[in-house]
Amino acid sequence: MKILVANLGSTSFKYKIFDMPSARILGQGAMDRIGSSEDSLHSFSIGNAGIVNQDCNLPDHASAIEEALNRMVGSGKSLETLDELKAVGFKAVHARNISGVVELDDEIISRMEEFFPLAPAHNPAYVAAIRQFEDDVPTARRVGCFETAFHGNAPLRRQMYAVPYNWYKDYGIMRYGFHGASHCFAAEKVVEFEKRNDLRHVNMHLGGSSSVCAVKDGVSLGASHGLSPQGGLPQNNRIGDLDPFALDIVIRNEGISFSDALDKCASEGGLLGLCGYNDLRDIQKGADNGDNRCQLALDVLATTARDYLGAYIVEMGGIDVISFTGGIGEKSSVVRSMILKELEFLGIVMDAQKNEITSGSGFLHTSTSKARLYVITTDEELVVARQTYNFLQNLVRE
Fold it and tell me: How far apart are the C-alpha atoms of 235 and 269, rounded to whole Å?
């Protein structure tokens, strides 16, 4: 069964075509800086062939999908025709009262549309992509694997806000948590590495969108994102945690609407708001050149991550494993070092040399460290492919 997995980030698009259940990769690609004034880089491969890198202009996710389809379909490519695809699996983010794995019919799509204000960088792009694939590949089932599902068994006390109780009961206002596919993959990987599943594990998914997740005995205890992907750590251009009364000050002083203030939080905050850049590569370059605001952005990101790390260590009564995933987590030795500095009193000892040379995957701990430190190249697409395949197999059995 051939399944295409579509993974849309706020500024990226990754895709893989799997032959399931073997999980053999028939083709894959990744694009970044979507919507940027700079050219995007499209890295793609067909089967076991080498990776091809190509600069391209990608003003939006629609153009990224068209670029991907052009590269994956045709004679000698991953697919002869799009009709070979049995399903398109989406790493969906948020929908009213929906979690887990579901078929993306009009009802589910409408619930995703209702939550556009909560996930403005993701839901509109996903809904547009779902409809685009419906037009381009009408014979393929469209399956949504929602990011919130991995955190669904967290204790209620970790999911609740201290709001009027009817807000929770009537409107579903609570902490959902996201990046479920990445955190799930990391949780499975560290069990494989450590050859045991009774682990107190914190995974840090750091990228254009970032979150920290506590995993105990393979079960999520919650993640730093809250009701929406806007909360938690500062994102590339999203604010992270913020006292809501700050909005009232901005609205009254700038004469803007509440909706405009939310738009600013979702598009002009985060690392971009702090220093003027939303790509860590540019921020690191600025910090290296003495830009104090770029250094401040790094400091705020690392400090917030450490705050959640400390809270989760207390929650779990200690720490056995810390792992890093996502573009920043995998590639930024600077951010990893800032997060892990001076934690020897917790039994966390990082090898500075290993950290400096590790990019993509590896381990960072010294031989004396009680906690194991891993960098993991997360495979969210594999998680979604398995979920999509299992979902379709269950439909056949029913």
Answer: 8
